[in-house]
Amino acid sequence: MMMLMCALLTVLARLACVFCATILLQSLAWPCSNGERGFSYPQSPKAPSIVSERYRTAYHFQPPRNWMNDPCGPMYYNGVYHEFYQYNPDGAFDPNDSLMNMVWGHSVSTDLINWVGLEPAIKPDIPSDICGCWTGSATILFGVQPVIIYTGLIDRKANQVQNIALPKNRSDPYLREWAKVGSNPVIQHVIPGLNSSHFRDPTTGWIGPDGLWRIAVGAEVNGIGTALLYKSEDFMSWTRIERPLYSNNALNMWECLDFFAVVPGSNNGLDMSSEIPSGAKHVLKTPSKMTIGCGRGSIMVLSMLQNHSLTPNTAGESYGLGVTRQIVIQMILQKAGQESMTIWLDGDGKQLIQWPVEEIESLRINEINHQGLELKKGDLFEIKGIDTIQADIEIDFEPTSIDDAEPFDPSWLFDPRKQCREADASVHGGIGPFGLVILASDNMEEHTAVHFRVYKSEQKYIILMCSDLRRSSLRPGLYTPAYGGFFEFDLENEKRISLRTLIDRSAVESFGSGGRICITARVYPVALVDNGATHMYAFNNGSTTVGVPQLRAWSMKRAQVNVMKGGSVIDA
Ligand SMILES: *[C@@H]1O[C@H](CO)[C@@H](O)[C@H](O)[C@H]1NC(C)=O
Ligand SMILES: *[C@@H]1O[C@H](CO)[C@@H](O)[C@H](O)[C@H]1NC(C)=O
Ligand SMILES: *[C@@H]1O[C@H](CO)[C@@H](O)[C@H](O)[C@H]1NC(C)=O
Ligand SMILES: *[C@@H]1O[C@H](CO)[C@@H](O)[C@H](O)[C@H]1NC(C)=O
Ligand SMILES: *[C@@H]1O[C@H](CO)[C@@H](O)[C@H](O)[C@H]1NC(C)=O
């Protein structure tokens, strides 16, 4: 399971996904249409204010101001990328803010890096979305007609239906204005056992073997997480197919589903609204067992479509190389930011890989390069010459011997974070810990450690990767866990363990072993604000000497992301 999971882990994840909030919504009574405040957002005690322009990310997507959560309906149309997102126009979210005005924020880009903010595309203004326009998706019908299908909140109990909006003018290159169809809601909850306050996040459409459109909608049915399946001839009127696309009682609700196809041996992304070649594998992205939020760790169910339903791969099934470019936009929680990632299938066909889109490399400047370094136990090598708070670092580690790997205990798999806390960067091991120390203050009182430890299992090597935030900031009250995950590694043959870390001020994203594992975090060091500069080191605290055959790092330029002009978003 771990192998299929590339958790997008987040700092301050105690700010649960907006949708978990429906539990509270149910028990509160207030009119949603007049903006009256009464909603309490689930979060742990408030951290002291950490507002500083210096923490604002420089090349991740963020709205110009206020709260955002889910990215929704990403779309590429006539040469323009569209990024919609759940946006609260009334403020940065605080416990007194109301979710009732949730709109679809809208930005456009031609390169996935620089974004121009537009007016919100969809706002609550019809009975079937009067309490909020929540997450959904975009489909381009027959390559020409963009359609958004999204969840509307119809009342203060957060009962949910699905609605459709179309661009008013397809010739407008930015598709600024969207009109809701008169037949909304196009899908209502009429299913026995469906919890209608858990019925949301319709997927992008695809064409089934009968030539009809399909979409899936996340739901709780009889207490079981279910991807309900619908079909339609015209994308407007929908009939439910009795058998769900997939269901699994590990969770009682699935949200932010994503469903896409990958073809072994193909380099191109598949258009789900065209015929899917036979032999394609489908990927259903669902929240992981441990979280129900949209941004906090996902499981990818890799499967075959059989009889219109998903059949998860049996363990051990493998097939040829599939490299398919599927861009997903992931959310980083807490005054959320986003970035675009490519997902593809690993060579053994069992593991999905996540990697930042290559476009991000256009922001690299001031390359520094080191070769043939050697890190002995206790060594700390300072990486200098780049902007340490806005950087992209690629480093390969090569243990000089594999004899000293400590034995692996399979029970650790259940709680990698615990292992990261107990076997942290200061606990000497056989092979590792080695990795990076970033955003470090002069005296190391503040620092974030991203590191690996190699264990020997019966037949294979297992690597633990940690992103340890526990000493990331001297500010009190922050959520600073040690995140972690395990992955298998063929140490004898692959030899080099790679780490890529993107630092974007308060956002830190680390990709282990070419994207087999990724860990994303937000950190708020005092030093970043006070000094504006921090230190960065490569280190080794294991008894085995670790070679660094290659270390390349760059400063990262600032991207133009929803820049404000004269107090308002630029309207291109
Ligand atoms: C529906 O979900 C809400 C929120 O989780 C829960 O409080 C409620 O009991 C559920 N209703 C049913 C009928 O299961
Ligand atoms: C929330 O509302 C309560 C009652 O109106 C008020 O006392 C409190 O200061 C508000 N909190 C914030 C963070 O605005
Ligand atoms: C649609 O957009 C195009 C391109 O911006 C513009 O020339 C045209 O006038 C618009 N049509 C309407 C009806 O607004
Ligand atoms: C396919 O699904 C239908 C209805 O969901 C069912 O009646 C039929 O037996 C299934 N066929 C196979 C081959 O599983
Ligand atoms: C390496 O271990 C020593 C001794 O435990 C510790 O003082 C030091 O901080 C560790 N290095 C890193 C980068 O954590």
From TrEMBL:
One of its GO terms (biological process) is carbohydrate metabolic process. Residues 1-20 form the signal peptide. InterPro entries: ConA-like_dom_sf, Fructan_Metab_Enzymes, Glyco_hydro_32, Glyco_hydro_32_C, Glyco_hydro_32_N, Glyco_hydro_beta-prop_sf. Residues 60-275 form the Glycosyl hydrolase family 32 N-terminal domain. SMART domains: Glyco_32. Keywords: Disulfide bond, Glycoprotein, Glycosidase, Hydrolase, Signal. CDD domains: GH32_Fruct1-like. Residues 359-555 form the Glycosyl hydrolase family 32 C-terminal domain. The keyword Disulfide bond applies. One of its GO terms (molecular function) is hydrolase activity, hydrolyzing O-glycosyl compounds. Belongs to the glycosyl hydrolase 32 family. PANTHER family: BETA-FRUCTOFURANOSIDASE, INSOLUBLE ISOENZYME CWINV1-RELATED. This is Uncharacterized protein.
